[in-house]
Specification:
This protein has helices at 7-10, 55-61; strands at 17-19, 41-43, 67-69. It has 82 residues and is largely without helices or strands. The chain has one domain (4-69). It has a three-stranded parallel beta sheet, with helices on one face. The protein is globular, with a radius of gyration of 12 Å. It starts with 6 loop residues before the first helix and ends in a 13-residue tail after the last strand.
Length: 82
């Protein structure tokens, strides 16, 4: 998966969760996910996504009951910045 490849899952009308943990993306393709209106959980753990490139994911987290996390579900969670 690449940032450009994020255009493909955004075309899935019933996409509810997306785990991008460990994927080599920098966040520039997150804008594609704005069209995934049912997306309620997005994991960005262990990626190169920065706070600056995370603005598209904020549109996901602003939906009621939605969650964007920088923790991967596995044992390799990215440490929180202090």
């Amino acid at each position: 998966m690449t940032d450009a490849g994020l255009a493909h899952p955004s075309g899935c009308p019933d996409l509810h969760t997306l785990n991008l943990g460990g994927v080599k993306i920098d966040g520039s393709g997150l804008t594609h996910l704005r069209g995934a209106t049912k997306l309620t959980w997005l994991s960005l753990g262990c990626t190169n996504v920065t706070d600056a490139s995370q603005t598209a994911s904020e549109s996901v987290s602003s939906r009621g009951g939605s969650s964007v996390t920088d923790q991967s579900p596995g044992p390799m969670a990215r440490p929180k910045a202090s």
